[in-house]
Specification:
single chain; alpha/beta; Rossmann fold; 8 strands; 34% helix
Length: 276
């Protein structure tokens, strides 16, 4: 697995999968990027260059753990761009990785050719998601066999009285089947310090990022899952509105990992955008 040196000397790892024009992929979490897999088969059309964020996967743990902060990870992405020799890059980010990607686009707009934000996190731009919004989305799935056990756990979490995150996992998938269960088990972040410090004080300056994104003229795709209560379609729509040239796509019956729920539809949408 190839590596490169971050600006502070930390060795960071990345992998290349597939053929075709490259797209740099940023995972959420921060978690091992292996959970992205081949993004439903996107690797048949694009070479996926997937970064293991510092302290995750095969990337080294930094000496300065404050460097886990999201805004400081922007320098790692830029270092990888330079290492790969790209003048401009197509960038795809999932979940919390979208907070990193939007900050990268705000700081280096001329380096971004196209930006795809999948089930995006929105803390970097100050879009808040209420517990009521999450519960309303969840209730749309009241006919699911797992709903009676999962919904009370979600109520408790959104009301601040519970923390049974495993119980609400079915809400993150369009289908809660064996494949989804296996994916969920493999997607749990291992470096909880990296998770805790990702959003530490100073990590986000929403007003500054919003202002900068208004000058980001690159095409943007914001892809949300219809059922995704982590990154609801309403928040994705608001995020898309911050860019001059953004397209919002809500994948029917999609969850937080839409490439698993309907790979063909996901790949067709992302490849059409990247190739436009």
């Amino acid at each position: 697995m190839p590596t490169f040196a971050a600006p502070d000397g930390t060795r960071l790892a990345y992998r290349r999968t597939g053929e075709g024009p490259p797209v740099l992929c940023l995972p959420g979490g921060p978690a091992d990027s292996l959970y992205l897999g081949e993004l439903g088969g996107l690797s048949a059309y694009r070479q996926l260059v997937t970064l293991d964020l510092r302290g995750t996967g095969r990337s080294a743990v930094p000496e300065d753990t404050s460097s886990y902060r999201c805004d400081r990870l922007v320098d790692d992405v830029e270092a990888l761009r330079v290492h790969l020799g790209f003048d401009r890059l197509d960038l795809l980010a999932h979940s919390a990785g979208a907070n990193l990607a939007t900050q990268y686009a705000a700081r280096f707009p001329d380096r971004v050719a196209r930006l795809a934000l999948v089930a995006p996190g929105t803390r970097a731009v100050g879009i808040e998601i209420t517990g009521g919004t999450r519960r309303a989305l969840a209730r749309a799935r009241h006919d699911e066999p797992w709903f009676p056990a999962a919904y009370p756990a979600l109520e408790a979490i959104t009301e601040g009285t519970g923390s049974n995150w495993d119980a609400i996992a079915p809400f993150l998938y369009g289908r809660w089947d064996d494949a989804a269960r296996a994916h969920q088990a493999a997607s749990v972040p291992r470096n909880m310090e990296a998770v805790a410090l990702f959003a530490a004080d100073g990590a986000f300056d929403p007003a500054a990022v919003r202002a900068a994104l208004g000058a980001c003229v690159s095409p943007v795709l914001v892809l949300a899952g219809e059922f995704d209560l982590n990154s609801p379609p309403s928040a994705a729509e608001e995020l898309a509105g911050l860019f001059p040239d953004a397209t919002l796509l809500v994948q029917t019956r999609g969850g937080h990992y839409p490439w698993l729920d309907d790979p063909a539809r996901f790949v067709a949408a992302v490849e059409a955008f990247l190739g436009r």
